[in-house]
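To whoever picks this up:

The nightly regression suite flagged IMS import disulfide relay-system CHCH-CHCH-like Cx9C domain-containing protein as changed. Nothing in the input moved, so I suspect the structure step. Input below, exactly as stored in the fixture:
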Amino acid sequence: MGRKAGNLYINPKKLGGIAKPCMKEMVSFLNCMALHQCKDDKCEKQKQLLSVCMQGQAEKSKSWGNINYHLQRLTRGRK
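Regenerated output under the current build:
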């Protein structure tokens, strides 16, 4: 019984705290779509809010170039 020593274990309770950007905007847009039988012309406000949020998230994303450089450097040292 229990976990074996040395195995990777991820606590699922800690994963609940991960930020979910634009979730509120997406849920409100999907609820509006469901309410109006998938007619997005009646949900322009929610659609605009979701678009603005997603554009803001795209600008915040980090470049992966630095991370990849350091990973390559670390793996080069192991060979």
